[in-house]
Protein 1
Amino acid sequence: MRGLLAVARREFAAYFATPVAAVFLVIFLVLAGALTFTVGGFFARGQADLIPFFNLVPWLFLFLVPALTMRLWAEERRLGTIELLLTLPLSPWQAVLGKFLAAWAFCAVALLLTFPLVLTVNFLGSPDNGAILAGYVGCLLVAGAYLALGAALSASTRNQVIAFVLAVAACFLFAAAGSPVVSEFLSARLPALAETARALSVAERFAGFARGVIAAKDVVFFASFIGFWLFVNAAVLDHRKAD
Amino acid sequence: MAALIEIEGLTKRFGAFTAVEGVGFSVARGEVVGFLGPNGAGKSTTMRMLAGFMLPSAGTARICGEDVVERPVAAKRHLGFLPEGAPSYPEMEVEDFLAFCARVRGCGREAVARAMALTQLEAVRRQPIETLSKGYKRRVGLAQALLHDPPVLVLDEPTDGLDPNQKHEVRGLIRAMAPEKAIVISTHILEEVAAVCTRAIVIARGRILADDTPAGLVRDGRSLEEVFRALTLPAEAA
């Protein structure tokens, strides 16, 4: 536990020691703010809720979360610090979980900084704040899912660009698996796969949260999705520490 | 008394290439072993297996009786390891970096102060590591290995990149710690062996070719360099 927290703390501080934190937060907040009011049609809908914002978040995270995860392990490999980290008295899962929690906490900070949207919608009308909270929980779970996936891919390479591109592609796969385009294509040709694809879709699972519904099966899905990829991360790390 | 480092039949294969084959030796408290060999001889690979960073293809190693494959975390607690090139996080300040390592190891602030004093890092404690010279970076790596005052020290090229004065200091530090610890240092600088080591192990092409005191190696009147060339060259020409 001590080692895990030390790793998480160092990793979290590292975001702020480099321009990564500033660039990420500014771009995320600008895009989230601007797109909610333009593409999302916040005013045009005439409803006091944050659904336009929540619908955007999985797609914003699709590009921004891999930017956080790409360096997690690839940079350690390139700098050689992985040799230092893994010869400290830490088990692989402590290192994996420590890094994941730091990145997750950072995403939580980014989400917290969108609070002006909540204030705005409360000022303009009387939204269901419980539903808004559920939406934020969903956003955090989507971030966690992408982070776990991206971190596992970062562990498999020493090249940050490869880690980024692979993570975007993989996240896109899990985001788009439930989209109408994919669903229709699969139902027409491989009906057996259509249901599976929908069930594994991060965006599909998130839709409930955006509407304000926290369903147990969706929480279980995100928890197992994150758990699975963290397990893959630890296994990859243990298997190919050196090369 | 049992040896603090015990290595048995350590072997590492990368595909068809065998980097280290059947390396075995043990190191008792008070010994400073110089691990000598040309570049690519398998020195770093052996040390990485000993430090638990690489899994051996065969054989095993124990640090203070703890098996590095079966009980890696316990073994690592007794070990101070300086990886090749002394890697550290460039954006971190010296003191923060050492504090991070200390937190993982569960030792306090006073351990950080002690390690910085031993390696004379106080003057740069608030500097980001990336702004330091090569010699200072190496000392940061050394400080990290000494934090928890471990009984076993494994240092991969501890004086590489240091100027003559710094080399002298680091060797003095190693000699001063020697009576209490089992130390393995890898090097390809032969003078270093005569300066600090009580024992020299020569390795080439993944095998141990000689294991003797520095005086024993030059018993027949040849210089250490001649002995080294005679031991490590033949098969390279073949």
Protein 2
Amino acid sequence: MTSSSNSSHRPRLSLGSILYLWPRERVMDFYAEMIESPVDVIYLGETICSKRRQLRPEDYWELAERVVAAGKQAVVSTLALIESDGELKTLQRICADERFMIEANDLGALGYLEGRPFVAGHSINLYNHRTLAFLAERGLARWVLPVELGRETAADLLRLRPEGVECELFAFGRLPLAYSARCFTAYNRNLAKDDCQFCCGDYPDGLTVSTQDGQPFLTLNGIQTQSANTHNLLPALDEVRSMGVDLLRISPQSAHTAEVAEVFAKVLDGEMDTAEGMAKLRDWAPSGLCDGYWTGQAGHSAGLSPMETR
Amino acid sequence: MELVCPAGNLPMLKAAVDNGANAVYIGFRDDTNARHFAGLNFNDKQLDQGIKYAHDRGVKVFVAINTYAQPNGWERWTAAVDRAAGLGVDAIILADMGVLDYAADRYPNVNLHLSVQGSATNPSAIGFMQRHFGIKRVVVPRVLSLAQVAHLIKETSVPVEIFGFGSLCVMVEGRCLLSSYATGQSPNTFGACSPAAHVEWRDTATGQETRLGGILIERRSHGEAAGYPTLCKGRYHVDGELRHAIEEPTSLNTLDILPDVMAAGVTAIKIEGRQRSTRYVSQVAKVWREAIDACTRNPQAFRPKESWNQILAQVSEGTQTTIGPYERTWH
């Protein structure tokens, strides 16, 4: 199956914010590489844990300037769960900066962003057209579809969306599934959250949770729980394009992220067929691929990208 | 402080009212509420009877319409709001911004509460909901420590309700997709976590296996106690070790910190468990009524009675209870 390149609406590619704790130097190297990659939009900022401070908002703004200088859009991402006063103050400080578009990931951010253009991330619960219209009136420029919603709801929302509001899909990466007050990485290392020793830094792709019969199931990343399988919409690109989806998000992983972006770009441009792309992506998804959410099935299932072994 | 008790059906509602609830919360028989279980919830006749029973005894009735509507089926949520508003209930508990927008626009005089499923954990989020939808109360997710709850109450003019007892959600409510990852159905989209239709029990030589959506979420040796199979409370392999990777099969009980909860200025304390039994709600409401009254009379001298904790332990799911996130060490 070759992805057709005749449609006028070719989705752009975006790079989600880095969800894991990587050393500062690695982060810098990663963005130097991704700025050269075929992604059009780069999301920058800490979205998981306020204790991770090896990059400050100033560092992300500086990176954002470089992204813009390279002709790409920079979006500053914010924390997905705001509990403390300190977290709220940082959020307020980030939202007060008007140079870049900002992605809201907690409802608290909407309180600071309404009245100017903003992006609603996938952890803002935008499930229907009325919520879409309500937020559009308050400045919503783009929304990332909540990851548990599939093509039926995506198609309905795209049909009913207010003029000019863009839709982005989480297209490749371990699925962000849940947030908690508890740091699961510290919990499983028998450490208190307040004395976590930044142990999440030991897991550049998160800590895998496997079932008692040996199936990789979930990935723990601090207060976030992700899927172990890598969600992948490459086999759905024809459909995604015909619906009018504007952006496809690739979520950073410790290896091959730029190559994943290359595969998506080539398949979208008709320079690589889907089967060849799938063969490559499979090698870069250590716990296997999944796509069930897109087709209305359980998120872990893989109807569009059957695995060799299961 | 108001005691808000669950009612999954008419006998439960009466039991909650008779045993000291100040308010009961109920749902309709469909996926518009987060306890969408077979055989649970109220039909029209039961609604009328239940509301009359509660109101005649000075007890409030709240209707939970706290799942997320998608475009296909949207009318079920607006119809549920219309129905609740027409019943003359004391508040509607909503989560979805679109549904809140509809309700606030259509029924400006009906009290709206922001459900725990609405995921508002800070003053900015609550303020946003208050500005746009005029919410009269917020039920906060089980992620804040008690110190954070106390601070939040100072920072917002919206009265705060917290969960005090019952099953413990480990994740921020409204933003947990673990159930749909395993089964295709989540609290947000379907109104149930780990729905029973996707649970499979199997006896094997190595023990009893519990699967959810085909995924092995627990395997225990024969004779080990089994609770309701919730995937966040199963045992998994992490770094080569078999353990409760997310949470143990434990439930929430905040009786020990009741004076602090009251001192923090909490408006209402909620008991989880619309899916539980009439006996459950009778016993829990009775104990909490006594406790709240004792604590109100003399907070300094308040100590939970041994008999209260024994009764609560008997009706708790799992064998352990925890103060949960209200205590910082839980995090």
